[in-house]
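Quick one: structure for this chain?
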Amino acid sequence: MHLSRGGCLSSVVLPRRPRVPRLRRCNTTSSPTEKPFYITTPIFYPNARPHIGHLYSLVTADIIARYQRILNPTRPVVFLTGTDEHGLKMQQTALAKGVDPLDWCNTLSAEFHKLAQRADVSGAIFMRTTQESHKQTVRHVWRSLVARGLIYKDTYEGYYSTTDESFYPPSRISSHPTLPNTMIATETGSVVEWSREVNYKFRMSSFRDTLLAHYNSAAALNAQTKDGLAVRGVHPDSHQLRIIRDLEMEPLEDLSISRPRERIRWGIGVPDDPTQTVYVWFDALLVYLSGIGYPGTGNAWPPDVQVIGKDIVRFHAIYLPAILLALKLPLPTTLLAHAHWTANQKKMSKSLGNVTDPMQAMDDYGVDAVRFYLARVGGRFRDDVDWSEEQLRKHADEIRNLLGNYFLRMTSRVIKNRVRDAISAAQDKSFDGLLSRQLANVNLSQTLDISAYAELDAPRTTEAFLPLLDNLGGVVSGCMRNLEVAEGLHAIVQVLRYANTLLTNLAPWSEGKTAAIALSSYLTALETLRIVGILLQPFLPSTAVKLLDALGVPEMERTVAYARLGRGSVKEDVLGVKGVKLFSVPAGK
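Got it. Here's what it folds into:
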């Protein structure tokens, strides 16, 4: 195995004799000792209704979680999302609206829960920082760090951003570009104010060298692609390099982890000190532990992947790992820091009136069409992407035509009548028998990488197309392992594009073509749809299930192990497969 463009693993060789497990949608445990695949989203701050960036994080994590379920169905998946509900902003907003902070949190948290359900996010734990179980975890961690001598009381003097709920050192502050006598956080652009207060501090400076060694080691292993993995530490690697540079060039200061109770009451009280409230970020970051029952005896920790936005890298790459090191817990394997969605190259904000409503987008174009667009256009994670309804419509049409229309074309009465003539002459009329005869003279020994799917010109023959189809599962798995979501989806789309072009070139409906060509085209199409249907389950869950059900693919054969030629089955009566409408086109779209 080797890495190809963009860090996408060229190919994962799928087993020749697959297990026959049962596909699961939610978490189940096959073994009390097997570590689950643990993935998290950011714990969303619900100071306003969800926007498209929240949906992006949710869908990205859900695609990865779903792929893990079909890649290794005997391994449980733990998927955590939720809301971070404490802090000064929440307190001020509730006060301005004249409502109780918890009532305000209940209202907005429900919106985020509804968004996850609407987006078809699967089997997730939805955790709220106002839950008593989370508060117990925070108190336990606080007392553990106190017992280790890692928390002390001191006077903090410096900059604080209410918008970011964050303390900033002078090195991360700059002058506002237009407002005089106003300072901002360099990274986020949020206004900061000078603050002087007594609070508790965490000895984060003690862990600078260990953190630096951790990220240097991760970067070195990624460069070697050891074990085929190139995303250890922080991904994309530009973020990891910045963290390494910051740790090398700047002192790591101790972290203020409480605020005076007189300033902020909406939060978890510091254990044994009624005058202080736990700092909202210290509180929120511990939800990744409380969500899996820490300090209980579960075995999900550490996270395999944590999906976050690029604006909160420091909190997750410095603050959280330092706390974990202090608790003597292993660090997460990969922090996926995605870029942002913008509108006309500007950050979406309520004040500019350019915020996209994710619920409206899904209502207008369909859930799977929006998921497809987010993954197809936003699944490289490195650069900000401009939200465009025109592009959403274009990509929705792309998948409808390449998949939906292809299915209907291949199951048309005209083609089936021609196929029926060819089947009548065959000894073994079963799908397995017919397909085995077709594959007998096809060379499937070659292993292809992602570069094979970059060709613009489609294969001219079925024999040239079939190796691309046979290798697709391994290529997509390699991409997904290295979190190259867009690359993996691109390979699937390319195979569909090739299949459509090949069908047009072969024209099996034509009376000028033999019945044997019609049969070969039909069987190739069924295998294409079966394999593509399996691999599209993480991206287009509802559509993929509809397709696989129509083909008659057994539920136990809907895993990646079956995404190879001749590996799985469809309806025994191949002519019994009926085309169904996979996508509904919203009115006016």
